[in-house]
From TrEMBL, chain A:
Keywords: Coiled coil, Hydrolase, Lipid metabolism
Active site: C329 (phosphocysteine intermediate)
A GO biological-process term: phosphatidylinositol dephosphorylation
Domain Myotubularin phosphatase: 117-493
Keyword Cell inner membrane: no
Superkingdom of origin organism: Eukaryota
GO CC, alphabetical: cytoplasm; nuclear envelope
UniProt protein name: MTMR6 protein
Coiled coil: 503-537
UniProt family annotation: Belongs to the protein-tyrosine phosphatase family. Non-receptor class myotubularin subfamily.
TrEMBL record, chain B:
GO terms for MF: protein phosphatase binding
PANTHER family linked to this entry: MYOTUBULARIN-RELATED, MYOTUBULARIN-RELATED PROTEIN 9
Name of protein: Myotubularin-related protein 9
GO biological process: negative regulation of autophagy; phosphatidylinositol dephosphorylation
Pfam families: Myotub-related, PH-GRAM_MTMR6-like
Membrane topology: Peripheral membrane protein
InterPro entries assigned: Myotubularin, Myotubularin-like_Pase_dom, PH-GRAM_MTMR6-9, PH-like_dom_sf, Prot-tyrosine_phosphatase-like
Family classification: Belongs to the protein-tyrosine phosphatase family. Non-receptor class myotubularin subfamily.
CDD domains from the UniProt entry: PH-GRAM_MTMR9, PTP-MTMR9
Length: 614, 550
């Protein structure tokens, strides 16, 4: 506990601050300001802590979080600052899974609720929904004991004609043993999205089993002879991989494949792109042009567009040509997950429901071994393994929700909350890098699942404009991927910088209103019933009156007879209030604050925006 | 002159109309004096397109064999293409459109020929008179008077006949001040802040010249707005450099020595050709569907449009802040005081005054701060983003103002009585209209053109309930507070409703908007019903009790 700590406004030029007390708990960093407002920061969310040079007011401490919150404290005594710094460094770097918050988090559920929570998403059920197993596809037990591929789930669906030797052979020819398996099956077109890792083709190697495997996939699709193989990497990267004995499929060796590169960059490019984006958006006194050129130089939106363009390509192959598609990148757990899951989302409206989106993440990301632990740096590890691949997926989905406001059952808050918990390590779902690891950690016994928790708060995540009839089952969304459709996601990267957001949120307002409408409908029913009852009652009373002159006072007397028209449900007030609507929250405010102090003739301001002669 | 002389081919058949995101339609093209009319004869859905010639910004023609193609680019930024069989016909039509869309006489414009098909309930020409405005003012303060000094436009050609000035300054002094200000635009009242009695005035630059001329009356006039011992702020919409250079041409700025109670702040807002170029570049970027992400962002950046938005909003916020937070009076001017000055004064009022966020109040603001204040609409809106002529008077000053209002509307979606459509409508009518409201460059010209007698006011049409309902914001809830917008680049957005309007299908967004409106409507219905039922129940209870008492 340290008192008299100042929390600086990230974008304020005059170093406006709140003074309060800083507490360190086992799991959180807590700051309570003088007006008793609390700021909680989970240690696992801390991406970096930095101690800046001592200033006159104290020792500055900057904390960057994985959910893009940045807080800037000034601690009066350097010793305290140093202590906090060291403790945070220790607390935010966890060495063992067992020390993560999820293992100590207890939401007061009993054991059966915990088990039920984990059973909420059942992938076998999901494959059944898609229509597999069927005449062409079957469940394979080849990986039942993780013997063929450690990073795949136990249950895998493959073409019926792919025998076990073919599977084993193919897996040996694929990086990390990740052989082609079914990711999504399109019932109507009988076409499949399959996924795998790159072939170990080098410059000339080939593998008959792998060729058979691909043939089996195209044969499993009766409506089209050929299939697409999408290598989601840029061609150059794929070629470079050949030198290491890896590479891509040679069209001559495989019958009836159409091979296509789509050019999504690798995890390292994405990591530095996000880094650049954050540097730009975090600049104080940013000009419009610096923002736009910074956005451009970061390449971030270009990458988002590339991911979505790839998904659109995939979807066209399936929906227009009824062709099956095999997607891979290098290891088949980053770009492949992005493209497969977005493709399925565009093809199947189920994934645009709240439950369906959970299923999609469980299937294409968690079960197929996207390395959440490494990519999100859950444990202290190799910083080169960190990459915002999943964040890009969520951002692509957000872009789609902007283009199709009625097609999604969930809203932006849902995406943000999932992003929050991918990094929070509060629930077991995203811990570890693959299913095998999760089983070893006994996550289902020791931790809780995020999904029932989100479903419990369902109301918060429902899109009030959602129209289930917007696109009937299995009709695809055709997003427009012209550049101007891709916008900076302010609510993600500035989620905690309130002064930048609209002061009144239309979506919250509409959400509350549609909630309120349900309540009002109930009220009307109730009132109508009451009136009906009363009508009956008063008839009865009249009847009674006729029969006998003396009668007991009716109950109604006790209720106050006067009726005042009152605002029905005051929920709206909270949403409508204009939070932070004062000059102090905005950039231009400091200008006046400066010159109101009656100062010398020429004041040149920090940004050089204004030069004032007084 | 007869329009018929200009129309060489009044009609062409088998013309094909192409618009982005719509299937091509075949039909008949007709040219009239003021309209280009295209009608498809298809029985199933007959379609008509009426386009005012004055809305046409530029026209291009191309030939492939005997098939001619005309590409028409409109001031509202729409682009359409007409395929016309027959080379001669196509040439005739193109040259007719060219001639009709560039008539130089104002009196030949459509508003002088337009006969409204609706009943006029309220004459818009009389909806917003200065006297009414003054009456409102005099109910809260008696420090101001209505001066008729400019009755015959004799003192200042770009001012209206009556202006509001400090009571303590007589007309004689005003005449002297007028001599000291560019274009005779002496300081007049723009806004009175009821909350603290502070005011915003606007004028043009003082004519100090290189030898630092001064005018005692000018000093006295603006000092009259200060409380004893208080300071005021002069917001000069030019950079200090530009203001200093203006001295060489006889202009200048208020010297500290002569205006000791005033602090001058320079907030640079760009002028004319720079803004026009910015618009041209922005629209070019928006119309190019092919470019990749990086090119789009760099083109958006190169247009500088959002930078201008930020500059204007920042200056307006600063003015508002001086008044509301610092409790100081403000004088705003640039060079002429007809462009950036008006952007700042009108936006500051939207921030400060809840009345300006209503439909009626906003119309009144446009009338006061733009039309009567002498923004040269005819010069500025003669051409839009597709013009290739390099005339130097065109500038999207008013469009930038509307864009800034839209930015604030986006940030405070419940605080405005009007919606985005209302702003888009004003943009369209400022550039091409059947109404006389935006004709002429100032009140002087308007009175010479006898617009009041000969044309219809836009407000007569807008303020009818049928039209108003289209422009109402269903989320509006009066908000009496000052609303401070964020000017961070992350908070500013491209106005898609104007700039991407014709470049992307908006079906899904429109449908979502409809759905939103229906939720709000349903909510109101339910609330009313619950209230009615409650009342009914209460009445029954009272009846029961009365019976009881009998």
């Amino acid at each position: 506990q340290v008192e008299q700590v100042k929390l600086l406004d990230r974008f304020s030029a005059s170093n406006k601050s709140l003074t309060g007390t800083l507490y360190l708990t086992a799991t959180h960093l807590l700051f309570i300001d003088s007006s008793q407002r609390e700021t909680w920061i989970l240690h696992h969310h801390i991406a970096a802590v930095e101690k800046l040079p001592l200033t006159t007011s104290g020792c500055p401490l900057v904390i960057q979080c994985k959910n893009f919150r940045i807080v800037h404290f000034v601690v009066p005594r350097e010793r305290d600052c140093h202590d906090i710094y060291n403790s945070l460094l220790q607390l935010s770097r966890t060495a063992k899974y067992e020390e993560l918050y999820a293992f100590s988090y207890n939401p007061k559920q009993n054991e059966s609720e915990q088990v039920k929570g984990w059973q909420l998403i059942d992938l076998a059920e999901e494959y059944k929904r898609m229509g597999v197993p069927n005449a062409n596809w079957q469940l394979s037990d080849a990986n039942r004991d993780y013997k063929i591929c450690e990073t795949y789930p136990r249950e895998l669906y493959v073409p019926r004609t792919a025998s076990k030797p073919i599977i084993v052979g193919s897996s040996k020819f694929r990086s990390k043993g990740r052989f082609p398996v079914l990711s999504y099956y399109h019932k109507n077109k009988e076409a499949a999205i399959c996924r795998c890792s790159q072939p170990l083709s080098g410059f000339s190697a080939r593998c008959l089993e792998d060729e058979h495997m691909l043939q089996a996939i195209s044969k499993a699709n009766p409506s089209n002879r050929y299939m697409y193989v999408m290598d989601t990497r840029p061609k150059l990267n794929a070629m470079a991989n050949r030198a290491a004995g890896k590479g891509y499929e040679n069209e001559d060796n495989y019958s009836n494949i159409r091979f296509q590169f789509v050019g999504i960059e690798n995890i390292h490019v994405m990591r530095s792109s996000l880094q650049k984006l954050l540097e730009v958006s975090g600049t104080k006194g940013l000009s419009v042009n610096d923002f736009l050129s910074g956005l451009e130089n970061s390449g971030w939106l270009r990458h988002i567009k590339a991911v979505l363009d790839a998904a659109v390509f995939l979807v066209k192959a399936i929906a227009v040509e009824s062709a099956s598609v095999l997607v891979h990148c290098s290891d088949g757990w980053d770009r492949t997950s992005q493209v497969c899951s977005l493709g399925a989302l565009l093809l199947d409206s189920y994934y645009r429901t709240i439950k369906g989106f959970m299923v999609l993440i469980e299937k294409d990301w968690i079960s197929f071994g996207h390395k959440f632990s490494d990519r999100c740096c859950q444990l202290d590890g190799d910083p080169k393994e960190i990459s915002p691949v999943f964040t890009q997926f969520l951002e692509s989905v957000w872009n789609l929700t902007e283009q199709f406001p009625q097609a999604f059952e969930y809203n932006e808050a849902f995406l943000l909350q999932i992003h929050e918990h991918v990094h929070s390590c509060q629930f077991g779902n995203f811990l570890g890098n693959c299913q095998k690891e999760r089983e070893e950690l006994k996550l289902k016994e020791k931790t809780y699942s995020l999904w029932p928790f989100l479903l419990g708060e369902r109301k918060k995540y429902q899109n009030p404009l959602y129209n289930p009839d917007f696109s009937p089952e299995l009709t695809l969304l055709e997003p427009n991927t012209v550049s101007f459709n891709f916008k900076f996601w302010r609510n993600m990267y500035h989620q905690f910088d309130r002064s930048m957001h609209p002061r009144q949120s239309v979506s919250n307002l509409i959400m509350n209103m549609s909630e309120q409408n349900k309540q009002l409908e109930e009220d009307i029913k109730e009132l109508e019933a009451k009136i009906k009852r009363r009508n009956g009652q008063s008839d009865a009373v009249l009847l009674k009156e006729n029969q006998q002159s003396a009668h007991p006072a009716p109950m109604a007397l006790k209720t106050p007879p006067c009726f005042k028209e009152q605002p029905l449900i005051p929920v709206n007030d909270a949403v409508r209030t204009i939070e932070g609507s004062n000059t102090a929250d905005n950039r231009y405010s400091e200008l006046v604050a400066e010159f109101s102090k009656a100062e010398p003739a020429v004041v040149s301001l920090e940004y050089g925006v204004a030069r004032m002669t007084c | 002159m007869e329009f018929a002389e200009l129309i060489k081919t009044p009609r062409a058949d088998n013309v094909v109309l192409h618009r982005p995101f719509y299937p091509a339609v075949e039909g008949t093209l007709c040219l009239t004096g003021h309209h280009l009319i295209f009608s498809s004869r298809r029985q199933d859905n007959a379609e008509e397109l009426w386009l005012l010639h004055s809305n046409i910004d530029s026209i291009e023609k191309r030939f492939v064999g005997s098939l001619g193609t005309i590409i028409i680019k409109c001031k509202d930024l729409r682009i359409i293409q007409l395929d016309i069989p027959g080379m001669e016909e196509c040439l005739n039509i193109a040259s007719s459109i060219e001639a009709l869309s560039t008539l130089d006489s104002v009196t030949l414009m459509y508003p002088f020929f337009y006969r409204p098909m609706f009943e006029i309930i309220e004459d818009g020409w009389r909806s917003f008179l200065p006297d009414q405005e003054f009456e409102l003012l005099s109910s809260v303060t008696d420090e101001w008077r209505l001066s008729c000094i400019n009755k015959e436009f004799s003192v200042c050609p770009s001012y209206p006949p009556v202006v509001i000035v400090p009571k303590s300054i007589d007309d004689e002094a005003l005449r002297k001040v007028a001599m000291f200000r560019h274009g005779s635009r002496f300081p007049v009242l723009s806004y009175y802040h009821k909350k603290n009695g502070m005011v915003m005035m606007r004028s043009s630059q003082p004519l100090t010249g290189t030898n630092g001329r001064r005018c005692k009356e000018d000093e006295k006039l603006i000092n009259a707005t200060l409380r004893p011992g208080k300071r005021g702020y002069i917001i000069d919409t030019r950079s200090l450099n530009v203001a200093q250079q203006a001295r060489a041409k006889g202009g200048g700025f208020e010297q500290e020595a002569h205006y000791p109670q005033w602090r001058r702040i320079h907030k640079c807002i760009e002028r004319f050709n720079i803004l026009q170029e910015s618009l041209i570049k922005l629209v070019e970027a928006c119309n190019d569907q092919s470019h990749n992400m990086d090119r789009w962002l760099s083109k958006l950046e190169a247009s500088n449009w959002l930078t201008h938005i930020k500059e204007i909003l920042t200056a307006a916020c600063l003015a508002a802040q001086c008044i509301d937070r610092e409790g100081a009076s403000v004088l705003v001017h640039g060079t002429e005081g007809t462009d950036s000055t008006l952007q700042v004064t009108s936006l500051a009022q939207i921030i400060l005054d809840p009345r300006c966020r209503t439909i009626r109040g906003f119309e009144s603001l446009v009338v006061r701060e733009w039309l009567q204040a002498g923004h040269p609409f005819q010069q500025r809106c003669a051409q839009s983003a597709y013009s290739n002529s390099k005339q130097k008077w065109e500038a999207p000053v008013f469009l930038l103002f509307l864009d800034c209002v839209w930015q604030i509307l986006r940030q405070f979606p419940c605080s405005f009585e009007f919606n985005e459509q209302f702003l888009i409508m004003l943009f369209e009518h400022a550039y091409a209209s059947q109404f006389g409201t935006f004709l002429g460059n100032n009140e002087n010209e308007r009175s010479k053109l006898k617009l009041l007698q000969k044309t219809m006011s836009l407000w007569s049409w807008v303020n009818r309930s049928e039209e108003l309902s289209k422009f109402q914001n269903p989320l509006f809830e009066a908000n009496s507070l000052v609303i401070w917008p964020s000017v961070a680049p992350q908070s500013l957005q491209l106005w898609e409703g104007v700039f991407l309007r014709w470049n992307r299908p908006s079906k899904f967004l429109d449908e979502a908007h409809e759905e939103m409106i229906s939720i709000i409507k349903y909510n109101k219905e339910l609330q009313a019903k619950v209230n009615a039922l409650r009342r009914q129940l209460a009445e029954m209870e009272t009846d029961d009790r009365m019976q009881e008492n009998l």
